[in-house]
Specification:
single chain, 417 residues, four-stranded antiparallel sheet, globular, F-box domain-containing protein, F-box_dom, F-box-like_dom_sf
Length: 417
């Protein structure tokens, strides 16, 4: 009997403290080992103490992002133009990335990626289109009434962002301004804050119009003269490359001249425009401006079956320049996917990944093509899915929810008690 008591005492001595007694530092070290952001969200919301530990530590969020980049959940596909594909629905579709991570798959299943939040009236015609995705939000436009909406499919949070058609009428210059797609810029530090930036130009000038989530009012900035572009032969003053609209990286927006000789940039913090000359390697190439895994701005372009990467250092005078960093051949991986090497397209560059298509966006829809992802750090190529129809796509990447960045919503109220 005495021996049994000693065994029970030894067994009890080996027991550790209850999980509720763990320090914040130890909890964060455990959470750091979770496989994805979706797994972290589920674990952090298990109790108030864990949520508070994650939300209050910017250093932890930085470490977690370094180990687990924000995951791709899928692609929003713009609705086809009227009559382009008779059997396709006139409503944006979503193609999931089909992640192996169960928590990521659960996030897609639980989110509103069918955009039912926008389908208020049973008799209304669905006229919505996906314009851009940024930090977990989707910018959508209703072509019927011109309403712009910012929607987070994961949280179903919806914000109205103004009247697109009224804005168009306000920025025209002698009836000759050419409108470009608006773009959405969201804050990494405050998930409740966003900007919708709308760019317009005439034959020699550009201007920016901005609506902020804090003011809810459009601010129309003055026209700015830019270096003389080479105008198109069709006499519509289209000197901006309009295939994919504006490009975006960090707080900057970019527009390429149609001849691809110059790049126009807008610093959305200062609302100042600048123009730089593009390297020769980008002429007649498909490219996009984006960010590497560590947040540096880069240009990624296709060259036959190779991918080139340009970085943006500054010279001694502070002038922006673009320098070739490396060119990586991918012929061994792409030979069986790409029929014409000249048709490999760079669709988007996001969070250290490049998204590619193996044929142009507007081609015979009976000919399927592949969507691919390429990691800029490892240069590992992955096949995502095949497309049998034509439209522009926008990668949707899961972002930190606002409940895990500071105190927002009901947590702020309850924590104050």
């Amino acid at each position: 009997m005495a021996g049994g008591r000693r065994r029970r005492r030894r067994r009890k001595a080996r027991w550790g403290p209850p999980i509720s007694k763990l320090s914040n530092d130890l909890v964060l070290e455990i959470l750091l080992r979770l496989p994805s952001l979706a797994s972290l969200v589920r674990a952090a919301l298990a109790c108030r103490a864990w949520r508070r530990a994650v939300a209050s530590s910017a250093a932890f969020r930085g470490r977690f992002r370094a180990l687990h980049p924000p995951p791709l959940l899928g692609f929003f596909i713009e609705a086809p133009a009227s009559g382009q594909i008779p059997n396709a629905p006139a409503f944006p579709a979503f193609a999931p990335a089909r992640p192996r991570d169960r928590d990521l798959a659960a996030a897609v299943r639980c989110g509103d990626f069918f955009l039912t939040t926008l389908q208020d009236g049973p008799g209304e015609i669905p006229c919505w289109d996906a314009i851009y995705c940024s930090r977990g939000y989707v910018l959508l436009l209703n072509w019927d009434d011109g309403m712009l909406v910012v929607l987070n499919p994961l949280t179903r949070r919806r914000e109205n962002a103004g009247d697109f058609y009224s804005l168009n009428a306000s920025v025209e210059s002698r009836g000759r301004a050419i409108r470009l797609y608006p773009r959405l810029l969201c804050s990494a530090g405050d998930p409740t804050s966003f900007l919708v930036v709308f760019l317009a130009h005439d034959e020699s000038r550009v201007r920016a119009v901005v609506i902020s989530s804090s003011t809810r009012e459009w601010r129309i900035h003055p026209w700015v003269k830019v270096p003389a572009p080479v105008l198109s032969d069709d006499d519509n003053h289209q000197w901006i490359q309009n295939a994919g609209g504006a490009m975006q990286a960090n707080r900057f927006m970019y527009l390429a001249y149609e001849d691809q000789m110059h790049l126009l940039s807008l610093d959305t913090a200062t609302m100042k425009f600048s123009v730089v000359e593009l390297p020769q390697c980008l002429r007649n190439s498909s490219f996009d401006v984006g960010e590497t895994k560590d947040g540096a701005t880069c240009i990624v372009y296709s060259d036959q079956l190779s991918i080139g990467i340009l970085m943006q250092p500054r010279d001694g005078d502070g002038v922006e320049i673009w320098l070739l960093d490396r060119v990586v051949p991918l012929g061994s991986e792409l030979n069986d996917l790409v029929e014409n090497p000249d048709e490999l397209l760079v669709l988007a560059v996001r969070e250290g990944y490049v998204y590619l298509a193996t044929s142009p966006m507007y081609h015979d829809p009976r000919t399927p093509c592949w969507f691919l992802s390429l990691c800029l750090e490892t240069m590992k190529l992955e096949r995502l899915f095949r497309r049998t129809f034509d439209s522009i796509v926008h990668p949707y990447i899961m972002e930190w929810p606002r409940c895990l960045v500071g105190n927002y919503g009901k947590f702020a109220l309850e924590d104050a008690i």
